[in-house]
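Incident log, support desk, overnight shift.

02:14 A customer reports that sequence design results differ from what the structure should imply. Their input is reproduced verbatim below. On-call engineer (initials T.W.) acknowledged and began investigating.
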């Protein structure tokens, strides 16, 4: 077999030449990219010196702000602090606003309004010594309450008329007991079938969302027939319920549903009935006629004694 001539190894076909030329162009582009990149993407880069200068200026402003910050001091007025007249002073508004009686509101209620512990203790000590707020503007005299806080709370003050100091200390209306740390807690019973969100918020451990849940649950039930039903509210822990239970009172009757005339949509929305029982009630009526008594629900396979006792107070046959 004849051997190839040496010059044939250095011969490039037309296809090889095109590939080599293309590869050479790519190599050249990669070599020149660092030179053209700043021209294509012209972004201003902050020099280290400029960055250090900016940080130094920021620290200087922060230091000046700290020196000019107002420091409260005790004055001769009934308020514990004097406040700067500068328009740059901005009060921090915290807490949830709701209607309240400053003569009856417990420590937890003041806390929800956004007051500090020292200010709350001042209010409770004032009431424990027989002091009383007679008009909304009287809260301006509270030692430790900022003027902007007082103006914020005044529209929500509702002072009960003709309430004597002795009445404030009765066990069935407001009981003040000093704790080991000197604070005083007000125990104000509320009627759970008529109380609004503000009344529930005043209870220890109950916030605005939880108070609204209690009321929504109460409305869906048609009212509570016993105090222990309150603890069935979603999100209400047993520890919180046991804490507020002594302050819960119950009066009035619950709203009843006629199982012989109520529609399926009306029955199934009740928290104790729901769709399975509601459907069984309607199907039984259709096949056997009207119920002669609420006890006839025991004829339904899904109804046991526990469920019947639970739902009986909300049902009627006429």
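02:41 Re-run completed on a clean worker. Output:
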């Amino acid at each position: 077999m004849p051997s190839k001539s040496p010059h044939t190894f250095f011969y490039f076909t037309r296809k090889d030449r095109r590939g080599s030329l293309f590869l050479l162009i790519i190599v050249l582009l990669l070599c020149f990219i660092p030179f053209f990149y700043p021209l294509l993407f012209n972004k201003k880069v902050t020099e280290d010196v400029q960055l250090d200068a900016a940080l130094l200026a920021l620290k200087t402003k922060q230091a000046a702000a700290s020196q000019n910050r107002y420091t409260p001091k005790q004055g001769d007025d009934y308020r514990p602090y004097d406040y700067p007249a500068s328009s740059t002073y901005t009060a921090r508004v915290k807490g949830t606003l709701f209607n309240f009686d400053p003569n009856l509101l417990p420590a937890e209620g003041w806390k929800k309004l956004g007051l500090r512990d020292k200010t709350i203790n001042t209010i409770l000590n004032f009431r424990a010594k027989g002091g009383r707020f007679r008009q909304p503007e009287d809260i301006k005299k509270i030692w430790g309450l900022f003027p902007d806080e007082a103006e914020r709370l005044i529209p929500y003050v509702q002072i009960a008329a003709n309430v004597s100091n002795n009445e404030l200390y009765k066990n069935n209306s407001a009981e003040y007991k000093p704790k080991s740390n000197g604070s005083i807690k007000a125990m104000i019973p509320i009627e759970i079938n008529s109380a609004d969100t503000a009344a529930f918020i005043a209870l220890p451990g109950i916030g605005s969302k939880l108070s609204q849940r209690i009321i929504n649950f109460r409305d869906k039930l048609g009212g509570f027939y016993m105090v222990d039903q309150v603890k069935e509210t979603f999100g209400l822990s047993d520890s919180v319920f046991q804490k507020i239970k002594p302050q819960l009172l119950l009066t009035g009757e619950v709203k009843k549903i006629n199982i012989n005339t109520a529609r399926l949509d009306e029955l199934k929305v009740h928290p104790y009935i729901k769709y399975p029982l509601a459907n069984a009630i309607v199907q039984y009526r259709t096949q056997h006629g009207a119920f002669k008594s609420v006890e006839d629900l025991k004829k339904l396979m899904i109804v046991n004694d526990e469920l019947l006792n639970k739902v009986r107070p909300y049902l009627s046959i006429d």
